[in-house]
Amino acid sequence: MEDNADKPPPTENIINSSELWAPQAWAHLQSLRKASPLIQCITNFVSMDLVANTLLSAGASPVMIHSVEEIPDFTPKVHALYVNVGTLVPNWLSAMKMAVQVAKESNKPWVLDPVAAGSSGFRLKACLELLKMGPNVVRGNGSEIMALFKGSVEENSKGADSILESTDAIEAAKYLAQISGSVVAVSGAVDIVTDGNQLVGVNNGVSMLQKITATGCAVTALIAAFVAIDPLHPFEATATALSVFGVASEVGMGKARGPASLRIGLVDSLHWLDQDTLLRNVKISNLLWLAS
Ligand SMILES: Nc1ncnc2c1ncn2[C@@H]1O[C@H](COP(=O)(O)OP(=O)(O)OP(=O)(O)O)[C@@H](O)[C@H]1O
Ligand SMILES: Cc1ncsc1CCO
Ligand SMILES: [Mg+2]
Hints:
Elements: E1 14-16, H1 18-35, E2 38-42, H2 48-58, E3 61-63, H3 71-74, E4 80-84, H4 90-105, E5 110-113, H5 121-132, E6 137-141, H6 142-150, H7 170-180, E7 183-187, E8 191-194, E9 199-202, H8 215-229, H9 234-253, H10 259-272, H11 275-281, E10 284-287
Parallel strand pairs: 2-3, 2-4, 4-5, 5-6, 6-7
Antiparallel strand pairs: 1-10, 7-8, 8-9, 9-10
Organism: Penstemon davidsonii
Cofactor: Mg(2+)
EC number: 2.7.1.50
């Protein structure tokens, strides 16, 4: 890793480009609501409800189909595939790989959420194998992206939660994007998105999202939906999806009394999010220090 791996970007190299990004975020959300893409989700048991409701409230059509008996018939019909290893067992891994293969043969984008990637050898190997299959986007927290980068089991793993800041994994994200060809997103107080060349920071969201399980899983599903409607621009789709989700959480936080009501407010806000609110609140910066 380079010397500056653990340093935050120098502030003079952070260019606030929200005015350029905000109209794109609105255009993506509008297209999503109009096209209502079908998103196949092979996701963990904890997240299924929030993932499905997040996709529905944003305007997409979710479906949780994961059996190898159904994948050959069904996966060619979807607009994007979402794979999340949160409650991984061997037969689900086979289904994930089959679905990825079918999606790729059908020219459909797919997105990976490497939940708790560094928590065990089995999970890490599975995530690295899936990464090799070339997801259009990978979104994880700091610990997950760092585990994929290092390729080793974490000593102090906290499972699905991160022990690192997203900014600790900037170099790792950039490297992974370059070797995999995937867009890599690292969630946290500031979400980092890179395609190995361009790099942005998304400054939307509220810290209480960390107190609701599966908000990371939900935002990765939203990324899959945004990539479904703009498959040629996965970098842009990932940044705008993270921002839209973050803005919805900020609006939801206004009425929340704690994590449980924020969870409800988040889903409500995604459904009602209007152009004016989105344009005023998108916070995306271009981080120039790594765009070499
Ligand atoms: N400190 C923070 N301030 C603001 N937003 C945050 C903060 N931490 C995380 N978020 C937001 O919360 C959402 C979930 O990110 P997080 O990094 O917690 O995912 P995760 O660890 O994969 O979650 P899970 O595994 O529970 O689904 C993202 O939209 C992210 O932007
Ligand atoms: C808590 C938890 N455990 C496995 S998956 C999951 C949901 C958040 O990723
Ligand atoms: Mg996660």
